[in-house]
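Shipment paperwork, digital attachment
Item: protein structure file
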Amino acid sequence: MSQKKSPHFELRSGNVDALLLALHTADTSALRDDLLSRFEATPDFFSNDVIALDLRSLEDGQRPELGAVIDTLSTLKARAIGVVARQEQHDWAQACGLPMLDSQSRRGNGRAGARDAEPAAAASEAPAPAAAPAPAAAPTPEPPRAATTMLIDRPLRSGQQIYAHGDVVIMDVVSFGAEVIAEGNIHIYAPLRGRALAGVKGNPDARIFCTCLEPELISIAGIYRTAEQTLPPDVLGKPAQVRLADETLILEPLRMK
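Attachment content:
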């Protein structure tokens, strides 16, 4: 088969952002009822988001009907793309027809383990030190790139999504059905009516600042709150900040002076 580069396509490595649905029960009927009661009132909540089913929290012997879970997600306009599972769960989990995926942290650990093993193998085969060639200098690693602040000066309409590797500043309305995702802080100098997710890489110190808080969903480091939980009157529709304390979202009025 020819290895010549094609002008029509290319294969590249990359990362795809997806939600993880961690299952804590094998009772798929109860799970369906819970998901529908939580999200059926906001039919555009997921907006065709892709979701991986995370089975690692299930106890040994618990085997939910994954096809039923996939159908429930489809009802809520979400797409299941794969399964994250422990090794002993793979045999039965693969029956749902979805590919087995690996979490980012587990892949990172696996690569580190492989790197640690390679020098040990080389050392066992190396000749005596006197005959060994001088080791090549290790390449100097590049410093990590500093995350920059993204500036958005236009409204975000329903179905639009923004992802920032650092902080993001938005100067116009975030409409219902729009989504702002940031690894750092989110600043919105306009009404927030869609979804805002800060600290998505697990940063518990990230915050959300907004001049008019009316969100469908707010989240920091994976801890979230939806519109089903009525906001306190001192922050609803008013300037506010959202922060995380002891894995609880704290909503506070933002004093504008």
